Amino acid sequence: MTAAPPLVAGAAAITAKPQPQRLGQWRRLPVKAKAGAILLGVFVLAAVIGPFVTPYDPSFQSPNPSLALRAPSAAHLLGTTQSGQDVLSQLLVGIRLTLELALLVGGAATALSVIVGVTAAFLGGLWDDFLSLVSNVFLVIPSLPLLILLLGYLPQKGETATIIVLSVLGWPWGARVIRAQTMAIRGRDFVAAARETGDSTWRIIAVEIVPNEISLIAASFVNTVLYAIGASVALAFIGLADVNSWSLGTMLYWAQSQQALQLGAWWWFAPPGLAVAFMGTGLVLLNTGIDELGNPRLRDASSANRIAGRRMRPADPTPVWQEEAPSRGRLAGLAASFSRTSLLERSGPARSAPLEARPASGAGDRARP
Amino acid sequence: MSFILRRLAFYAVAAWVALTANFFLPRAMPGNAVQAIMAKFPNLQPAAYQALEAMLGVGHLGSLWHQYVAYLGDVFTLNFGIDLSQYPAKVSTLLGQTIPWTLTLVGTATVIAFFIGTGLGIIAGWRHGGWLDRALPGLMFFQAMPYFFLALILIELLATRGIFPIGQGYAGGLIPGWNSAFIGSAIYHSILPAFTIVITTMAGWMLQMRNVMITTIGEDYVVAAQAKGLTSRRVVFTYAARNAILPQLQGFGLALGFVVSGAIVMEIVFSYPGIGLLLLTAVTSNDYPLMQAIFLVITFAVLLANLIVDFIIVAVDPRARTRETAR
User: What whole-number distance in Å separates Cα of residue A250 and Cα of residue A233?
Assistant: First the structure.
């Protein structure tokens, strides 16, 4: 339950109805980020309230054989397993456990990668070489076989063990990216200014460097959560987890080991797998959205690149107005695009969006009083 | 050449780290894992003890250092001992039987996915905002899906209706060999697993290629090429994509670890006779020496693939030949 506070905070930041003054910020977010946030919000909501609204005890095995392996019905919205357990209840509890685990791993591994990345960039020299080598080695060694080996040796394969092992192996990618960014920021004028005013290295790191990397750290967090979901589900699927607790992975494990597929019980293995897929899609979309916030070029160009109603390819030469009888729609569009207000409207938000929208990337909300 | 030498040194270090971790992990674990393993196999055959000797170094006399040296020697001579759970079989034989399956399947599927994904990424990046670009979020859905789950769905949709075989590497009754019946059957059985890998990994390549492509298209030299009046085709492929593909190649090696990880779990669903299925049997029967040997083999395969990609990078990227590429 330790994950409850960040869960709730994340939900509030992402899904809370935007207040009027924040509506503009929300609207300016890339579509992909919005879709991802909404999708994730649904799962966070399910994780928070899920365990309280489960219609049945997920582990309750119905002694009545007629209730076993039933297709979805009014009594069991997602059907039952072979031993008469309610799939919906398992799903609701499972989403919570999986998400909780993934968020904890994401937090721990991201913290590690910030520490390693910033340390490497600041200490430089031999330490930098060493830390970079370590993270590159861990990146190139395939993680899942190593995870299997590590978990295989642990005497008890509970949730804690999985969290620790996943966190220990989940930091190198973030560390690499953050190190590169820190190297770039370190040479900037404002860092030099802070140093001149006598700020300690710790203060520079905490006040100048890390806040400037918040979008990168957020992206790294989202990536790590994605990795943690995938890895934990895969590990549970092959039985390297506490198979008596309900997570999305253990649901798939039981479905596979009790031959749901051969019995044609699609309602048994499809919900947990789809939940993982949708959660992952939400995270990928959110990450793409964060990318687009930082790099406006990547945004969907369908509206931005229309000039005089003509769609521009990015590398097309500057359009030259051709003397042809424009259609009514095109004429109207042309008139509108050259009117003063529309110019202001169009170039105004589009230009300033990347700068202003940056704090709206979820994590930055706290920075704003 | 210095680039390749540097990379070689790096892979040597990575291989050494993997080997050493493999050796010390069971010792570093709480509750003396070696004894726990031996307790799990009370009636261990004396010959099978060699596997423990090889992978864990327990039987070797002397200090930890001597055990470590003996273990390294065993690994380099590919002496992984006798398997614990499938008693008379040698671990190296088991590995030799399964590796070709996984290597062929994962290798081919990854290369196909890389080419399709990169190609689509070029189009999506060039026609930024076009229909393909907007279809990308839909493709990400497949990327976010666990490989093994897509495998389950494909079996449910296609295999149970008899269009494709449900599992296994080849039809029962055939004897593996270089004859057309066996190879045809093997290809037929590998279509669904390969399709799974291609579908789930394609979107990742596509997204990265698209993003680099969009950034590259904004470069002055692309605009200059366009201004010279070159055909779009030439601008796209010779100017933009040629440069945009370099980060893609550098990412290839790192992504490979994920692909292999996903693929070995996917094999379990298809009962594909590869190394993933072997890993599952090792895990379920607590066959630690086999698990360790598999870990080493997979790691070395990934390192080797990375090395090959580095050679390709040197061939394609003139900067890698002249300048040290920090990585």
Answer: 7
Q: Rounding to the nearest 10 degrees, give the CA dihedral for residues A16, A216, A165, A118.
A: -130
From chain B residues 150-179, the ones with a CB under 8 A of any chain A CB are 152-153, 155-156, 160
ipTM: 0.81
- For residue B223, what are its two tokens? 């605009």
- CB interface of B with A, residues 45-104, below 8 Å: none
HSE-CB at B136 with a 13 A cutoff on CA atoms is 32
- Alpha-carbon span B288 to A149, nearest angstrom: 8
- Answer yes or no: pTM beyond 0.80: no
Q: How far apart are CA A158 and CA A366, in angstroms?
A: 34
C-alpha span between A13 and A41 (Å, rounded): 10
3-state class (DSSP) for residue A120: helix
Contact A153, A90 (CB under 8 A): no
- Summarised one tens digit per residue, pLDDT across range B41-79 is 666 666 556 566 555 655 555 677 777 887 788 778 777
* Phi-psi label, residue A70: left if phi above 0, alpha if psi -120 to 50, beta otherwise: beta
The structure tokens listed for B202 are 């394609």
Identify the DSSP state of A191: H
Cα of B184 to nearest chain A Cα, Å = 26
Contact A280, A229 (CB under 8 A): yes
Is any Cβ of chain A less than 8 angstroms from the Cβ of B146? Answer: yes
What b/e string do you get for A145-163 counting C-beta neighbours within 10 Å, with b at 16 or more? bbbbbbbbbbeebebebbb
Residues B260 and A230: beta-carbon distance below 8 Å:
no
